[in-house]
Specification:
The complex is a heterodimer of chains A (218) and B (255). By secondary structure, chain A is mainly α. Chain A is built from nine helices and no strands. Chain B has 255 residues and is α/β, with parallel strands linked by helices. Chain B has helices at residues 45-52, 76-87, 105-117, 121-134, 150-162, 180-195, 207-213, 231-236, 241-251, and strands at residues 7-16, 19-29, 34-38, 60-65, 68-69, 90-93, 168-172, 199-203, 216-221, 224-229. In chain B, α3 (105-117) crosses α4 (121-134), α3 (105-117) runs parallel beside α5 (150-162) and α4 crosses α5 (150-162). The longest helix of chain B has 16 residues, at 180-195. The chains are: A mainly alpha (218), B alpha/beta (255). The structure holds adenosine-5'-triphosphate (ATP) and magnesium ion.
């Protein structure tokens, strides 16, 4: 049986919806990983000891175990303790927290690298510790790590394929559904790959825009 | 209270671990007075200045400004509140400007007044324009610090401090990091503040400037105020050998 890409257009609607879910999950988990990363970084650096220690354990769990396992745990495991999340939400939470931990490591190092004079200048004007951190130190720390955070976003997009295993009808699952009906894995996996590639291009273009936008303010 | 000096530092001592950096310093500054602090590197000039606004709190002694003790012994939360309040009255200008690079000139100046004084956007914008006019930087209001020269940055930093309407301005070698040709524009701004009778304490290596602008000069060495008096006395008729040695080195090459 040779290759026949003419079957692909019949499944454009399925693929299109898959692309939609992949984009949605990437944006939602990406935002969670960004803002979660900032919150985690602040907690890890300045939180009270009683919060910091459990947090380190939590961070270690998220960095030291497979994302796939984390998704299973959040989607199937949490039901046993009464937390029944819809698949999409479970996917966003799993992906988002996983990458938030990585972003948090970047942001922590970056916060510590902000020139001490910045905090001093803010405090000298009368800003409190919290105000100085929020308005002066964190904005600079985050700007400095936009490129590596961008790389994490690209990794997040690619890893979003993993949420197919908990039944979110994103691009990879959409391709599998089409394959189930046509028995043409090559054609649909290639189609999905091409779609990922274009989403990736769009994401990179967006990241470049953000980098250009903040260039002067660094 | 009316008899009390505007600024008073009493029996100030400061150690970093075993290193004694300030030793029994006493200093009073009247309202509108301009005091220069000179002395060799490591003598404690910056530390004294930073003790005034609690950036480097004293180990012992007292700092008073306008009837309020700055370095009050308070429980942590109350101390923080107190310090955040009194710092609004003390402007500080740093050697390396410390402008906020992520904010425009306008943002640098409006940040603190907006957060701390509850002013509207319109009010803080007027405030920013007024202060920038004062330092001749109004045309650069929407620039980022990265687009400014060193002298321009320092003038903006001065405007940022002035926007809090401080009772006193502290300058820690405000021109030391500048290329020689940019020093004068910053000195001019400081001279103008002197004419407006702003109370100022100026740590400087520029003896000429101290002589021109200041009412009083303090010479510090190894944590002590070794000599103090009018510029004429300290620069022309110093009584202490350490002052003479220091001035010999530092007046060389100046005229
Ligand atoms: N945070 C600190 N921790 C430990 N030692 C410090 C600290 N800050 C200053 N010192 C030490 O205190 C002494 C006085 O320093 P200070 O910065 O006040 O000197 P200075 O007169 O301002 O010198 P310069 O002209 O070089 O600026 C120096 O020996 C310095 O190494
Ligand atoms: Mg110094």
């Amino acid at each position: 049986m040779g290759l026949d890409f003419t079957v692909v257009p019949k499944f454009f609607d399925v693929i299109f919806i898959g692309v939609g879910w992949t984009v949605a999950i990437t944006i939602a988990a990406g935002l969670l990983s960004f803002f979660g990363g900032i919150v985690f970084a602040v907690v890890a650096l300045y939180g009270p000891l009683l919060v910091r220690l459990p947090f380190r354990l939590f961070a270690w769990l998220f960095m030291g175990t497979p994302l796939l396992l984390q998704l299973f745990l959040i989607y199937f495991g949490l039901i046993q303790i009464g937390i029944d999340l819809p698949a999409f939400v479970a996917g966003v939470v799993g992906l988002g927290l996983h990458f938030a931990v990585y972003n948090s490591e970047l942001i922590q190092a970056s916060i510590l690298a902000v020139d001490k004079g910045q905090n001093e200048a803010a405090r000298t004007l009368g800003l409190s510790r919290g105000q100085a951190l929020r308005k002066v130190v964190i904005p600079q720390a985050v700007r400095a790590v936009i490129p590596p955070i961008g790389n994490n976003m690209i990794a997040l997009l690619k890893d979003s394929a993993l949420v197919s295993v908990i039944g979110v009808a994103e691009l990879t699952l959409a391709a599998q559904q089409a394959i189930g009906r046509t028995f043409r894995p090559f054609e649909f996996y290639v189609t999905a790959a091409v779609c990922y590639y274009f989403i990736n291009l769009a994401l990179e273009a967006g990241l470049r825009r953000i980098e250009r936008h903040i260039q002067l303010s660094r | 209270m009316s008899d009390a000096p505007f600024i008073e530092i009493r029996n100030a001592a400061k150690s970093f671990g075993a290193l004694e950096v300030l030793k029994d310093i006493n200093l009073t500054v009247e309202k509108g007075q301009i005091v220069a602090i000179i002395g060799p590197s490591g003598s404690g000039k910056s530390t004294l200045l930073r003790a005034i606004n609690e950036l480097d709190p004293l180990t012992s002694g007292e700092v008073w400004l306008d009837g309020v003790q700055i370095n009050k012994d308070l429980p942590f939360r109350q101390y923080e509140k107190h310090v955040n309040q009194v710092r609004q009255d003390i402007g500080m200008v740093f050697q390396h400007f410390n402008l906020f690079p992520h904010l425009t000139v306008r943002g640098n100046i409006t940040l603190a007044p907006k957060m701390l004084k509850g002013l509207s956007d319109k009010e803080v914008n007027e405030l920013a324009e007024e202060q920038l006019k004062r330092v001749g930087m109004l045309e650069r209001i929407d620039y980022y610090p990265s687009q400014l020269s060193g002298g321009q940055k320092q003038r903006v930093a001065i405007a940022r401090a002035l926007a809090m309407k401080p009772k006193v301005m502290l300058f820690d070698e405000a021109t030391s990091a500048l290329d020689p040709e940019l020093v004068e524009e910053v000195n001019l701004v400081m001279k103008q503040l002197a004419e407006e009778h702003m109370t100022m304490i100026i740590v400087t290596h520029e003896m000429g400037f101290a002589q021109d602008v200041c009412d009083r000069v303090l010479f510090m060495d190894q944590g002590y105020v070794v000599e103090e008096g009018s510029p004429d006395v300290v620069f022309r008729n110093p009584t202490q050998d350490r002052t003479k040695d220091f001035l010999k080195k530092h007046l060389q090459g100046q005229n």
